[in-house]
Amino acid sequence: MRYIRYAFYAALAVLLVTVSLANRDMVTLNTLPEAVAAIPGVGWLSQSVEVPLFIVVLGSLILGVLLGEVLEWLREHKHRADAAQKGAQVRKLERELKKTQAERDKDKDEVLALLDQAS
């Protein structure tokens, strides 16, 4: 299974390098459209930068994956909290069980108590 994953990663890397080499043309990224930048008091927000197209594509892909991971992590918070609460409850019940068994077995022979605990 590990080799299949490595083969997938290698194929993905070849694909990304090929797309990157095919899209090296420079593009201009603007923070605001020209019509919005013309509004008085908003012009200072208008910035532009020229970068290769593959950086825009790969950057968008990485940003989307990171945003999706963060949102999924936040969505699963209730499940993690519930699992932690149930784990604490299990540990508490195990402690109570051991205490109850110890009280039950205090008057028994040690060998019989060990046999009861083993089964």
From TrEMBL:
Domain of life of the organism encoding this protein: Bacteria
Q: Which GO terms describe its cellular component?
A: plasma membrane
Entry keywords, A to Z = Cell membrane, Coiled coil, Membrane, Transmembrane, Transmembrane helix
Q: What is the source species?
A: Pelagimonas phthalicica
Q: Which InterPro entries match?
A: LapA_dom
Q: Which residues cross the membrane?
A: 51-71
Q: Residues in domain Lipopolysaccharide assembly protein A?
A: 45-97
Q: Which residues form a coiled coil?
A: 83-117
Q: What protein does this entry describe?
A: Lipopolysaccharide assembly protein A domain-containing protein
Concerning Pfam families, the annotation shows: LapA_dom
